[in-house]
Amino acid sequence: YQWRHTKDTRLSKFNQTEIKAMLGSYTKVLFVRDPFQRLIATFLQGMGSSPSFSSFVQDVLDSGTHNTSVAWTPLVSLCRPCLIQYDYVVMFGFQRQELGHLLRRAGLPVDSRLPKFTDTEVLWTYRWLSEQMFSELSVQQKKQLSRFYRWDLAAFPFSSSFLSD
C-alpha cells in the first residue's frame, strides 16, 4: 500500500482489508499518560491562553470533544485502542523499564540507546503537581473532567489518577 501512503494519509482513508494488512505488518506501540497529567503539562507548556489552571480546564470543558487540541483530546479518540490491537502499551512514568524491555525484544542494545529517565522523580513531581492543580478546581469541574475522560479511565489502568476518584 506504499503507493497510497504519504505523510498526511490517515488510516481512515483505507478500507478494512488494507488496514488489517498494514497494521498486521507493524509492531504497534502506544504511549499513554494520565489525562489529568496531560492537562497539567499542556497548561504548563503555555498551550492554553488562560491565566489560571482552573480557567484553562474550563476552556477545555467548554470546547467539548469537537475542535479540541490533540494535547488534551481523550486518548481513545486519538488511538482507537478498541479497534487496534497494540502490541505494547507504555505508561508515562515507566518509560525506562518498559522501553528497555521493548529494545531487548527488538534485539537492540539497551544501555547505548536508552535516554536517562528518572521515572520515580517524574512520578513524584506529577503527583505533587496533580494535588496542587486538582485543589484549584471546583467540584463541578472535577466531575466534568472525570466524565470527559471516562473512556480513557476505563481503557487504561490510571488507578492513581485524580480523575478516577
From TrEMBL:
Q: Name one GO molecular function term.
A: sulfotransferase activity
- State any GO CC term: Golgi membrane
| Record InterPro entries | Carb_sulfotrans_8-10, Sulfotransferase
Annotated localization: Golgi apparatus membrane
Key words of the record: Carbohydrate metabolism, Glycoprotein, Golgi apparatus, Membrane, Signal-anchor, Transferase, Transmembrane, Transmembrane helix
Q: Does the keyword Lipoprotein apply?
A: no
Pfam families assigned to the protein according to its UniProt record, in alphabetical order: Sulfotransfer_2
Q: Give me any GO biological process, just one.
A: dermatan sulfate proteoglycan metabolic process
Question: RNA-binding among the record's keywords?
Answer: no
Q: How does it sit in the membrane?
A: Single-pass type II membrane protein
Q: Which E.C. number(s) belong to this protein?
A: 2.8.2.-
Q: Give the enzyme class.
A: transferase
By sequence similarity, the record places it as follows: Belongs to the sulfotransferase 2 family.
Name the UniProt record assigns to this protein? Carbohydrate sulfotransferase
Species of provenance: Sclerurus mexicanus
Give me the gene this protein comes from: Chst8_1
